[in-house]
Design brief:
Radius of gyration: 15 Å
Order of helices and strands: HH
Number of helices: 2
Helix content: 40-55%
Distance between the termini: 20 Å
Strand content: under 5%
Largest sheet: none
Structural class: mainly alpha
Number of strands: 0
Shape: extended
Length: about 55
Amino acid sequence: MASTPRALRTGEVVRAVSDFAAAAANADKAGFHGVELHAARRYLFERFRNSEVNDR
């Protein structure tokens, strides 16, 4: 079962950045050289850019 999205607390931001950095380092070690982000009709981008839509 998926969890409900919520805003990060200030104290959680450093951990999230650290987790992303570790994931990027692991991907590099595994031979990945890029990320392909699919966002059909800009929906994903709009969810994060638009203050009317992004209520987290």
